[in-house]
Amino acid sequence: MTWLLEAYTDRRTYGALGYLLVGLPLGIFGFVVVVTGLSLGFGLLVTLIGIPILVLTLLFVRGLAGLHRQIAWSMLQAPIPRRPDRRVRAQGMFWQRLRELITSPQTWRELAFALASLPLGVIGFSFAVTLIALMFSGFAQPIITAAGVETQIGTWTIDTLQESLVYLPLSLLFLLVGPRILFGLGAVAGRVTVWFLGRIGLNDLKVGVVQALAKDGELDGFAILDQLQLRFGADAHLSPTRVQAALLALESNGQVGVRTGATGRLYRLGEQT
Fold it and tell me: pTM of the predicted model, to two decimals?
């Protein structure tokens, strides 16, 4: 019993409710803008006007994904990584940045989430509203009946105070278990959001590695991983394997050098020694 009631004092319960409710308007807005942008872009592609429309749509998708990350992190405390500073991400020529936008797998995951956010928002909103209605309808029905408003359930008309108490046991049950159900729904919604948006791209990892080495000079792989976790926050996809892939990519283009020290391989900016 205590375990069930503790959900009332857990701020994540109310965060989950807020996330489920706000998911529908955000989903509608994102879906409409993205579908409209893609339709116009591909439809006008033959005139070349469609190219900037498609690029603007992808930029909108990236911004919308950033908003969803912030909401999921603040309301659900989901392990969403912080993105690199925009000034860092904006390095390079325009065409390089455009190529990164188009070829980044993260862009297409964000696009998929923008399209999926409408059905996900409808499902989450429906569950939340239905649950709230079940929790409080038993208490609202006597008030409605006392006000002289009749309620119809099939062929049964509720028009007396005694009949209006039919919902009360159900509402009492859902008042007990409802917050825990909300908590579970929020956890599921958070996992879906993390699956789509909670992955740090390889380019972002490389930027983080370069900045860590520029700050500390020389680090081993574990120290670099610690620095990235401090920079990006909790992230299930931030693993030693992915950090090693970023280091190998930086080694191959000469941005990072490596030497063997007493504690193992040490990395620094510059050529290999």
Answer: 0.73
Give the tens place of pLDDT for each residue, 135-175.
Answer: 887 777 777 776 666 666 666 667 666 666 777 787 888 88
User: What are the sequence ranges of the domains in the chain?
Assistant: 1-199, 202-269
Buried b (16+ CB within 10 A) or exposed e, 11-26: ebbbbbbbbbebbbeb
**CATH architecture group of domain 202-269:** Orthogonal Bundle (1.10)
Contact present, 269 and 119 (Cβ < 8 Å): no
Q: Locate tokens 């006007």: which residue?
A: 49
- Residues ≥6 apart with Cβ < 8 Å to 203: 100, 104
> Taking the mean position of all CA atoms in its chain, how far away is CA 212?
26
